Give the backbone structure.
Amino acid sequence: MSERVVLAYSGGLDTSVAIPYLAEQTGGDVIAVALDVGQGGEDLEAIRKRALACGAAEAVVVDAKEEFAADFCVPALQANALYMDRYPLLSSLSRPLIVKHLVAAAKRFGGTTVSHGCTGKGNDQVRFEAGLAALAPDLKIIAPARDFAWTRDKAIAFAEEKGLPIDVSAKSPYSIDQNLWGRAVETGFLEDIWNGPIEDVYDYTADPAEPREADEVVITFEAGVPVALDGRPLTPFQVVDELNRRAGAQGVGRIDMVEDRLVGIKSREVYEAPAAIALIAAHMELENVTVERDLARFKRSVDQRWGELVYDGLWFSPLKDALDAFIADAQQHVSGDVRMTLHGGRAVVTGRRSGSSLYSYDLATYDTGDAFDQSLAKGFVELWSLPSKIAAKRDREV
């Protein structure tokens, strides 16, 4: 039996050219695997047919939108995952899902090698290969763009030489990756970090400066999972999909930042994540209502570490598994409704209610009916400040 190479296939120029190129380099068959993670564009059947037309021995296409939403976007939401406090982990969430299906295809078709289209400068090579190391360490890995210095010019020439059925003329000035959770744009004139993004950079979001009526939405959560919008039960995929449209129409979720890449360089990125930003804001506020103070304080450090692990490609790691268990336990009371106003590029919480609320009107009010015993406060403050008082006295005497 000849060697079989399982290729993470997008349907674009680079991975289409990779099919005959890998076949030549390895002398084996290429199995193309494409996933729909809500990125839009062509339908899966068209992508499957193109892979076969480019010489793939087999082509596997998977509608993974619901799986991506439930098993990857929801955990990121429960962790309030924002890398560097801003980036909601768009690309890094989809890579472990793709890895999972690459490994499944390798087992199904007897694959011995996995290939991806990542370069040596990006984070995705790490995410793919660290995931493969955890799930299928015996598989070999080939990254043509990195391992064989495969450039776009070479890819175009190879496609023309082989007469491949792909368009090699159009080229976006940007490098774009998108999925259900958001859209990432880089390169081109954005590499000069003084240049501001122009409107043609954006696709998921409308110009937030344009006048329009505000949109009010009520998001319902059960144990940290979004389950309804405006009282209508929906799957996580449907919630994210609808909020992408509604929050995106209000210009919510635009992010322009210089971030620290895993490979050690800084990179300018422009993101659009309307649903992710709105949902994280709503979820954080519901946690404020339902999660006890010390648990909430500790969870914030867990959330940060969780986001760093996922960004760094360690989805399938022991620490990530342990943090998942902690976060899941912390979500047991995060149920209720959050009302938000979407307008002018912002998602603003205006109301919250929960059967698991720790907020007590009687304790919080300053009006008649106040149940807070203020007579206890004086002694509490004295004891609380006692260590500082003792230390200050010592320092004055030194």
Summary: The CA atoms of residues 124 and 380 lie 52 Å apart.
